[in-house]
User: Fold these one by one.
Assistant:
Number 1:
Amino acid sequence: MYHSDLFQQYGPAYAVRPPHSLPPTYPATSAHHDAYRYPDLEVPPSQRYDGLFSALDPSQRILGAAPLTPLSLPPGPALGFGQPQPPCDAPRLPGNVKMILENRELWKQFHAIGTEMIITKSGRRMFPQCKVSVSGLEPDGKYVLLADLVPVDNNRYKWQEDHWEPSGRAEPRLPERVYIHPDSPAPGSHWMKQPISFHKIKLTNNTLDQMGHIILHSMHRYQPRFHIVRAQDVYSRRWGGCSSFTFPETLFLTVTAYQNEKITQLKIQTNPFAKGFREDGLKNKR
């Protein structure tokens, strides 16, 4: 909205003319606005959306975060790998709802030598990407698919010669963010017709990030989790059920530069977008 008080400061630089003065018959400012007041909006900005996120700890609400749902996710990854786990107080989805990791063999190659994921200030996509398939959903039911990343333990790690080892206590947990798949909400038939890719997830170490990327600490271990929620829309307060899934192959360590040369070579071999790596880049380690 244009504000005439700002014209003297910014107007001349952009060749902007001040607005025409209003005719005397135009209603007075205060009277005009009073007739169109919305009392429910007259609250501090920090409290304006409390009703949508009643189940979230206020400390977890970050400016610029991707749209959040009233999830009450468990604090740690103490989940049975490959088994559905309820992420909230809502009832679980039927037992025939299944999820499988589509690119499991690729993940297993990285897991065997210790998967590392680059995190940057601007955000970096994951490789391997998370690609799953689901079954057992009601074709006409509406579902929301989400993903988050949780710490595996309370340790910070360091690369020591040819292996990773703990090097102290983990840094304080960062406010958590949830990635909502852009197709959400969609009917079960949509989710089941083809593999679902979470390749747009970006990881960052910028604690002031306002792009909605997942914020992680470097040199820590994380576990991706995937959640299926039956709901009519992202902000729905009435859920028809929810279940979470994890896969042991997807554990990874965050780094700002690859530490294990085997990881670098495997990414060059399997990632078509990683051909820019060079041998001299292997020495640039944190």
Number 2:
Amino acid sequence: MKLKQIALAALMATASAASAEVKIALDSAPELENSGTYNWVQGFKGVLEDAGMDVREMPRDSVGNEAEKFDQLSTGLLELSLSDVRAIAQVDPFIYGLRLPYIFDDSAHMQRALAEGKIFDRVNEAVAGQDVMLLAIVPIGPSSGIITTDAAVRTPEDMADLRMRALDDAQIAMYKAWGTTGTIVPWGEVPAGLQTGVIDGYLNSPFIPIAFGQTDFVKNFSDSRTIIPIRAVIVSKMWYDGLSEDQRQVVNDGVAAGNAAAQAWLDKVSSAALTALEDKGVTVQRLTDEERGAFRKLSQQVYDSGLMPSEDVKVWTDLSSATR
């Protein structure tokens, strides 16, 4: 009798996972013109809906902060989230290789490295105990530049007196290598920090000040092209494993469609991103290759800082070289 009850419970869980709507926790406003991740969602969503699956978009922050979203994914209460890469890195820091400065030339280079290196297989083996899966890495927008309220930055020396918002210890190390100071500030506190002078700027895609309505107080963007700004597509393993074989294939096809949609958008808007900032009154510093090289050279210190095991750094640098 007990075995029958267990089998019935498992069957009900599988049926529930397969039939319930797919809730997607968004990370940005639902604006196709300004968000790489929302373009990804639309590509993914279209495939699922064409296959008869119900999909519901959950507005940014409506299901909680990053930690709360991860908990809901782990327990099967949420099916998919566009999350900070730190959510994965807290379990497997290897993924932080994606944030090594100047590791990739562009988003297409990053995707080649992820595929050739079988990074998703490696990461998902490491995070399986948390009942989550990493399905995709999605570019938020064109390569990150230096965003500031007042200072115009063309050289590392121009940043000497600035305090920059950092995502993590790796960015603090990068800012230190550049000769400036970094401090970790949650994204929700960044606008107030910029307006009160607690921080002078941050590193991100040129679309971010536009998408988040910051162009009234962000006045400079330096096109340093330091890091590919990304989000992690994380799903509930309980949900994914509960799908039928055909439904899992639909989800996998949806991931491919989402990746293609995000890349197509990025290819279209990359050349226009800086002009869009200028149209909003932001001064853009278009760095030469030589000027950008000064930041690249100093950034090499991050690779040797000990923040990542040297063997992990080598995996990423070898992958980068092999897929360039």
Number 3:
Amino acid sequence: MGEVMAFLSLLCFSGNVLLTKAASSRLNVQIGYFASICVNVFIAIVMVLFEHSVLHNPFHWMLRGFIYYVLAGCLTTYVGRLTYFHAIVRLGAAKASTIQVASPVFTVVLAFLTIKEVLSAVEWAGCLCTVLGLFVVTYVPGIFSKHRERSDERGIVKDVGSLTRPLNEPSAAKGNAFAFLSMSAYGAGNIFRGEGVRHWNDPVFGGFVGALVGLVAFIVTTPRQVYRLRALKNADRRALLMYCFGGLCTITAQMSVLFAMRYMPIGIVTVISMSQPLIVVPLTYLLFKKSGRMTARTIYGSLITLIGLILAVAV
């Protein structure tokens, strides 16, 4: 059961990356994030009501678990996702995913240091093999060179009138900083997710708390941006719809991660759910015309990743 939910989260997170990449060239990322997180909260409310009103599952309040869910929401739904959105916009889906490859290792090490979660030698080998394979899949020689930055990468715009237009100021340095911040936030947030579900075994409500915290944090920290969202009525409808579907993907992925952490070590769940380049990179080539063919590097890296995942979950 844990493996199924972890792989479901992988599919949903990958779908969100592709949708964000497609939508970011048509609509400002701040509006996109707001739309996505609103969908998160709405879907989560529906699922909570269904679980406790229709299925009649009992509701037991656990303060410690609630605190962990709140911290996880701040780090993943708000800091992690928003900075990842900015990284995708500035760097592209493939490059942002390359940096994100280090997140599973960061989580595994952090879990060992903070909550003494110990993996077997085979699980460690699987994790490292997976990360190595993901790096091979995503790495392109010179990808981090400034000379490779395209002049049409989109930056964050400040003025009110341009909120509904694509972003247009490239910033590789900021993009890399956003990607590394996202990696760290997701890594630490996953620890709190795991601890939350262990102290309060209600993944659906935990997903709702995380989504709500992300929305509140966005409103509190960027009140001027929220005021400017009046421009939403003039936004590109297709891009807005993509961001909304991305919100559906992410709330599904978040709840799937929480369900998986009920049955599996936090580090293993993170390794699986963050293996997004295995799906994102090939589809990026196909959907965004990044390459006319699959390279040998991509094929070999995919095989290494699959071997690592098998070692991590099936041995």
Number 4:
Amino acid sequence: MGTGISRGNAAVNFQKPGNNATQHGHVTDALPMDHSHGMQPMSNSPEGTASSSGPVPGMTRKEFESVAYNMSHEKRGMAIIINNKKFQQHLNLPERSGTDVDRSALYSTFQALGFDVKRHDNKTVEEMKTILSDASNDSDYHRKSDCFICAILTHGDEQDVLYGTDGTVHFENILSFFKGKNCPDLVGKPKLFFIQACRGNKTDKGMALDVVDARSEAQRQISIQKIPIEADILRAHSSVPGFAAWRHKINGSWFIQALTEILTKNWKKMDLLTMLTRVNQKVAHQMTESEEKQVPMFTSTLTKDVFFTPKES
């Protein structure tokens, strides 16, 4: 950037094969140090509920034992982008300038990967829950799809608190809509979450390092297996716990811009976790004018490699 620079498990039925301070344009998605917030209750949270009591749709043993996810379904999958830019006055949160650039970059990238993308701007906590609940319940669609993506761009706080335009929600509550029996048609399929939000107020000043240039086939019987409810989820955050995430007022956030660039260049040839490592590298090499740093963090319970194999026309 130039000058002017943020539990239970689910059965699988095997079938026969078939911010605040600004710095030269840099802002964070963190809260003021003395900012207090009240958590809104997750009244329609799916935790402890089940939308289906039977086994999930079938999977061949070959598919179950494969080292890569099956990405040859009819559809790539649904991608939801929730982009919160403006917040109600009582929250005393600044407008997230530059976030629309991130939203547009994500939209274009997810479309290029073959996803059906849905964009949602400036949503309350209740609206966010409704969007995600409706998405998790779209069984007919998920049954035909490879995977699911959700990207949330908003203000955040410690312990993975995320902001709707009117209050807060824990990221774990969002994840619960898509776990196990709450979303049976995505069991055994990758569920990918990308979060651009601060996870605290600390900033990373970095550590000096000298860099030196140097040269020198399958069973056909039906059987029942179980998949852990927490399996097949990837969560990629723009920063590590406790730290702020930088966002440029004009160019967008370091994390989302790096993510979309790396995905766009490499999705046809590289697996997702490798690409996310490249994202970490790209963001880690950036620095504000006051020498603040950032590194994203992803955690994964994926059980296979994710390759976005191009769909045949």
